[in-house]
Amino acid sequence: MRTISDIEGSFDLHNGVKMPYLGLGTYQSDNDQEVVDAIKYALQIGYRHVDTASVYGNEEGVGRGLKESGLPREDVFVVSKVWNSDQGYESTLRAFEASIDRLGLDYLDLYLVHWPVTIKYKDTWRAMEKLYREKRIRAIGVSNFMKHHLEDLLETAEIVPMVNQMEFHPYVVQQDLLDFCFEKGIQYEAWSPFMQGKLFKLDICDDLARKYGKSPAQIILRWNLQKGVVTIPKSVKTDRIKANADIFDFELTNAEIAYLDSFDRNERIGPDPDNFDF
User: Fold this and answer.
1) Which residues have C-beta within 8 Å of that of residue 173, sequence separation ≥ 6?
2) What gap in Å lies between CA 218 and CA 176, rounded to an integer?
3) Cα maximum dimension of the chain
4) In the annotation, is 188 catalytic?
5) Does residue 24 sit in helix, strand or coil?
6) Which of 81, 158, 182, 253 could form a disulfide with 112 if both were Cys (CB 3.0 to 4.6 A apart)?
7) Which CATH number fits the domain that encloses residue 29?
8) Which is the catalytic residue, given 21, 47, 56, 121?
9) Mean pLDDT for each 10-residue chunk of the chain (278 residues)?
10) Are 190 and 224 within 8 A, CB to CB?
11) How many domains does the chain contain in total?
12) What gap in Å lies between CA 81 and CA 115, rounded to an integer?
């Protein structure tokens, strides 16, 4: 079990880059003052990791939030992703330039292939490797890649992905994929850790929440981190952004982690990486 100490803690990627294990997700955050204020507040209370994507349509707002926070650029781990319609070698290079222009940055800390578009992701990865070698990106990775996608990519990749960002919560644990990634040195990362709120309508965390004096959301996030999984809960509300970071004064037992693992039933809230059409 990895040490989960405080909001400034991180996991080491296989190239030595430190990736903060708690971040602010910005999916469905509007590209206006809403996302600017959310980022400024999160950074003010100690977050040092912000996740966006070109398809979210809010990279300009994210960039404003980063700039207005007043923090040095190197203090914040910034992530974006290349969208499916931009995949391919030359188009990925162009998409990257467009993203950092919108963000107002000179480099990204992490750039991800958003989905495994079958006939394109290998060429996309070659472009990512080029950008990484040119030090335009500190780490490169993928998102929504199942084991067979990773095995296929690794047949030709010169650089092993540093990260795989997946839908991850007690109803879709995918322990085999998690184990495969750790075996290959690929950091696992969770998107939609709360199943877009669906988990709160269940009672699977209620006993643990009472035991530790925490909310079900805090229990889930703590479970994420103790599983060795980076997590990026999305919120634009200051009380929730703050509460999502209040997870460092308790520790789940191995039995409690196994209990939450036991709900795995491959039930997704998002698209299936093996069957998507966008």
Assistant:
1) 261, 263, 264
2) 25
3) 53
4) no
5) strand
6) 81
7) 3.20.20.100
8) 56
9) 86 98 94 94 98 96 98 98 98 98 98 97 98 98 98 98 98 98 98 92 93 97 98 96 98 97 95 92
10) yes
11) 1
12) 9
